[in-house]
Design brief:
Layout (H helix, E strand, L loop, with lengths): L1 E4 L4 H12 L5 E4 L10 H6 L8 E4 L2 E4 L1 H11 L10 H22 L1 H9 L5 H26 L12 H15 L8 H10 L3 H5 L11
Parallel strand pairs: 1-2
Antiparallel strand pairs: 1-3, 3-4
Helix pairs in contact: 1-3, 1-7, 4-6, 4-7, 7-8
InterPro entries: Glutathione-S-Trfase_C-like, Glutathione-S-Trfase_C_sf, Glutathione_S-Trfase, Glutathione_S-Trfase_N, GST_Zeta, GST_Zeta_C, GST_Zeta_N, Thioredoxin-like_sf
Family: Belongs to the GST superfamily. Zeta family.
EC number: 5.2.1.2
């Protein structure tokens, strides 16, 4: 398999975690979204029509969107299963993953932040305030979900799921942006536990071949 990825993309980070957890060997094909490589005509036409990362190539099959990719990997390699089969637990895990991938991440990804600067002409201070506001809103919701579901050490107890795969990159981004996460101790406990796991450690941005300090 090949993965078109950017080291600091939280969506790419999710897929790297899933691939490593499942023991799937893959080749990283870096796409520098900071300089617009994801918008190149050849990339959009032949790799990912949504002009984004990640994109997975499995022989002739090409797929974008991190959650779709992880679901595909779950069907290809059943263990460890990241999206549970039990109806109630599956729904809870997807609820958690959607909160991060649909409510938090889209408001804080690079293209949104860049639009704020280039089109709306906000100041760096206003951009940071925007980021921290939506991180605070989203993480407060995450923490409330964990209060309901979390007995540790993972989001849903002893079982590692898609929820953890989504939470860890989101927290990593928030920490990189100097957000105060102290009000979310359950989330931080999961994050700190996860980084001790080899798959989560190997997927970290600074471990990637395209890492830029």
């Amino acid at each position: 398999m090949q993965l078109h990825s950017f080291f600091n993309s939280s969506t790419s980070y999710r897929v790297r975690i899933a691939l490593t957890l499942k023991g799937i060997a893959y080749e990283t094909l870096p796409v520098n979204i900071r300089v617009g490589e994801h918008r190149a005509a050849d990339y959009v036409a032949n790799v990912n029509p949504s002009a984004s990362v990640p994109a997975l190539i499995d022989d002739s099959f090409r797929l974008g969107q991190s959650l779709a990719i992880i679901d595909y990997l779950d069907q290809k390699v059943s263990e460890p299963r990241l999206i549970p089969s039990e109806p109630e637990l599956r729904a809870r895990v997807l609820e958690f993953a959607a909160l991060i991938s649909c409510d938090i991440h889209p408001l804080n990804n690079l293209r949104v932040l860049r639009y704020l600067e280039t089109e709306l002409k906000v100041t760096p201070q206003q951009k940071s305030a925007w980021y921290r506001h939506w991180i605070g809103e989203g993480m407060a919701s995450v923490e409330r979900l964990l209060e309901r579901s979390n007995a540790g050490p993972w989001c849903f107890g002893a079982r590692l799921t898609l929820a953890d795969v989504c939470l860890v990159p989101q927290i990593a981004n928030a920490l990189r942006m100097d957000c105060d996460l102290s009000p979310y101790p359950r989330s931080l406990a999961v994050y700190e536990h996860a980084l001790k796991h080899p798959a989560f450690d190997a997927a970290q941005p600074q471990r990637q071949p395209d890492y830029i300090a």
